[in-house]
Amino acid sequence: MANQIHPLAIVDPEAKLGDGNIIGPFCVIDKNVVIGDNNRLLNSVNIHYGARIGNGNEIFPGASLSTKPQDLKFQGEETTCEIGDNNSIRENVTISRGTASKGKTVVGNGCLLMENMHIGHDCVIGNGCIIGNSTKIAGEVIIDDFAIISATCLFHQFTHVGSYIMIQGGTRTSQDIPPYVLAGKEPVRYAGVNLVGLRRRGFSREAIEAIHDAYRIIYSQGVLKDGIAMAREQFPDSKEVEYICSFIENSKRGVIR
Chain-wide mean pLDDT for the chain? Predict the structure, then answer.
C-alpha cells in the first residue's frame, strides 16, 4: 500500500520509507532516516537525522525523535535512535539519539510513552514498558521489559530498572531498582513485590512466593552478598530468583532497599 504523505509535510528525498505510512501535515522527516511500514505520524512530528523506526507505530503531535544528544561530549558522530514496532509515542515526547558511548538509543516494541516524557542519549528501553507523563530519563539508563513507571519520575544517568516493576509517581532515583518490585516514597525505597502486576502477567503462585521470599532473605541481611547466597541456596531452580540475584550483583550504582 502506498504511503499517504500530506502536502504540508516535508520529507527529505534521502529518507527511506516503507509502505502504508501516513504522514500528517507539518511533519518533518530528515535525511538519514529509515521508517518501516504502517506507521502513523499524526501532525507536527519531527523525525531527525539517524532515526530508525520499525512498523506499526503511532506518533502524536509535537513528538521529536532522534534529537541531537543533550551531552556536551557529543561531537557530531554518526549515531542512531532505534525504535521498534507497535509503540504509542504520545504528544511532545522527546528521544535523543546515541553518542560515541554506545552509538545508539533503543526503544523496544509495544511501549506506551506518555505525553512530555524524555529519553536521553544511549538509553535502552525494553519491550512492553509504560512510562508516564513528564517522566525524565537521563542518558545511558537501562529499563528492562514490562516496567511501569508513573508520571513525573526522574532517573539519574546510568541507573538500571528491572522488569515487571511499578514505580510511584514523582519518584526520584539515583540507584538501581531491581525486578518485580514496587518502588516509591521519599527517598525512594523498596515497597514490596508487585503482586498485582505479576499476577496480570501470568506468573504462577509458586514463582511469586519465591520472589517474595527471595527479597525477604536478601534484604534481611546486613550484607547483600550474604543474602544473595542464601536466596540462591534456597531457590536453586528459580529463574526469577536468579534474575534478582544477578541484577543486584551487577548493579553499578547500588540498589534501593
Answer: 97
Residue 121 is among the residues annotated as catalytic for this protein: yes
Count each helix (H run) and each strand (E run) in the chain, helices first: 4, 28
Residue of 36, 54, 98, 139 with catalytic role: 139
Looking at 36, 48, 54, 121, which residue is catalytic? 121
- The string of pLDDT tens digits covering residues 12-25 is 999 999 999 999 99
139 as an active site residue: the answer is: yes
**Residue at grid coordinates 532522534:** 66
Longest pairwise C-alpha distance within the chain: 65
* pTM of the predicted protein model: 0.96
Rounded Cα distance between 116 and 168, Å, is 18
Sign of the dihedral defined by the CA atoms of residues 219, 132, 49, 3, in that order: positive
C-alpha–C-alpha distance, residues 75 and 8, integer Å:
32
Out of 122, 162, 176, 227, which one is annotated catalytic? 122
pLDDT value at 1 more than 90:
no
Task: Please check whether residue 73 is in contact with residue 90, taking contact to mean a CB–CB distance below 8 angstroms.
Answer: no
